[in-house]
Amino acid sequence: MAFLERFVSGTLGLTKFPPYLSTFYWSFLGFLLIHQVIAPYFSSKYFPVAFAGKNRAARNNWSIHVVSQVHVVIIVPYALWVILNEKPDRGAERAFGWDENVGYVHAIACGYFLWDTLDAIINFIDPGFVAHGIACFAIYTMSYKPFVAYYGLRCLLWETSTFFLNNHWFLDKTNRTGSRLQLINGFFLLTSFLFVRIIYGGSISLQFFFTLLEVRHEIPLAYLLIYGLGNIVLQGLNWFWFYKMIQSLRKRFGTSGERTKLIGEDQVATGPADGHAAENGNSS
Length: 284
Hints:
Layout: H1 2-11, H2 21-46, H3 48-52, H4 56-84, H5 100-122, H6 127-142, H7 149-155, H8 160-173, H9 180-214, H10 221-252, H11 256-264, H12 276-279
Helix pairs in contact: 2-4, 2-5, 4-5, 4-8, 5-6, 8-9, 9-10
């Protein structure tokens, strides 16, 4: 353990990471346990048709969404609590500042993104899934240098919409496509996506861009390019997936023939999104 702490802090330069390594380990193992044991066990018991009656790829896809949902219900309230309890001067140093509570939140997120990356590699579907997992894992581990941890914490609030996105996916798979429940969930999905990712997310992205400009002479050019371009791409994807979700919901509440077709779909969808699980649910 001591050797690993020295390697993480000294060699990798993640000076703030050692105190949070145990949280990181338990986070990864916890999400792995849910994926491999807990989700399959209870899903087989309570959803014998939607889960147990499907092939291996479909069952794995279901378990991925379960893990994603667990991550959401942990990380969003925790991140929000940390934000609401920050010191008044926390926003004064957004590039290189640090908050001990942020370390625990990011450690949980890192454990999730490590699990996400390994699953995307082992159950390979699309290189985009692998790239997304690696990018998210790298960005959140790099926050322990420390670097832009202020913004990393706030970006985790974007996961709010993922909760409703996963609900939407589960309703499809349990033969509730086009139901009143899915309509209500769809309203909250679009509303949360609009306010959390488009409006709030757009504001955070703009602030993040100006912060990068302010410290551009203090960071490597690679950091400036990766974080700057990544910021633009993520916001572009948010707008793209917002449009795609509107289209998807319109199909769900179209003709009965369309609804029947959608209920029967059980392929693992592909495309860029927010997390491997969310990607399989038509959006990021």
